[in-house]
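Chapter summary example: a protein plus magnesium ion.
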Amino acid sequence: MTTETSNPTASVTLKDLQTENPRWCTACGDFGILMGMKRFMVDKKLSQITTVNVSGIGCSGRTPNYMNTYGAHTIHGRPITFATGLALTRPDLQVFIHSGDGDALSIGGNHLIHGVNKNFNCVFLMYDNELYALTKSQSSPTTRKGHATNTQPSGTFMDPLNAVRLVLGIGASFVASTADWMPDHLAKTLEAAYDHKGFSFVHISQRCPHFDPNNFAHKETNWFSFLTHEKGIAPDKRIADKAALTPHDPSNLQDAFRFAADDRRYFGLFYRDSNKPVYDQIMRDMVKNAKPKNRANILDKFGINDQA
Ligand SMILES: Cc1ncc(C[n+]2csc(CCOP(=O)(O)OP(=O)(O)O)c2C)c(N)n1
Ligand code: SF4
Ligand SMILES: [Mg+2]
């Protein structure tokens, strides 16, 4: 999401970013994502006054309240609308979108399609706890088959929607995947997403111990692999020696689809295309290059001529 102006202030610290205590359940994965965001901002020396965190609604939607930056907790499924306006009019700002699996793929699915396709400049964090948490455990598009929720108490009967495959199919220019319990990998993923110009889609496996305590065996490493490449994202340093590593060139779209469809989960950079046109840049260039028009009597040509 590289922006057009350089950082105008001195380094930010973790303390500067501190706000009220988050109202999430104990051990919620959202704490890890919040910390990953803060660490990334400190490492990258981002400014509080040019960073905007935008969210929809959900437990995930609370993050902007807990970062001492500018922010907007918007409405369910609509953070992309708000963020598009910011990206169009304020290229000097760093725009981060925080959206849950329900927010991004159910009510906001249509907006996600067009946001990804337009490739406007932002980092999109999809918190995937595989259910609607704030509204107390309903099935979401990513709920795993067989998992019981309040809306499907005898077990969800559909296969989950694969968000990574979906956005690759739409033509995303940047697709990466990480997890809330890997702070080092999460921060590096955000850094790679930020360095990319365009819509950077970051899928985050997120624990919801309150409604789904057995999801994600976060202490084990035998169910996933890190995608590795010199131009990719380095594996999480705390567990790199225990986890499987899979070489993958992030310019190879066909392989990206193959890994996305695999039963095994992969963390790392699936795909990056630095040449895809960026919507807000195109729009700004259009405005800049537009020829001035004489606006006098401009409405007359739309009038109905009674004499004709
Ligand atoms: C227009 C509208 N419809 C429905 C709701 C109720 N609602 C609030 S959050 C939510 C689902 C949130 O799920 P997700 O996006 O996965 O976020 P999580 O809570 O899991 O982080 C729903 C249906 C709402 N607030 N607004
Ligand atoms: S309900 Fe789940 S996602 Fe929401 S705060 Fe609690 S643990 Fe986190
Ligand atoms: Mg959710």
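Key point: The longest strand covers residues 265-272.
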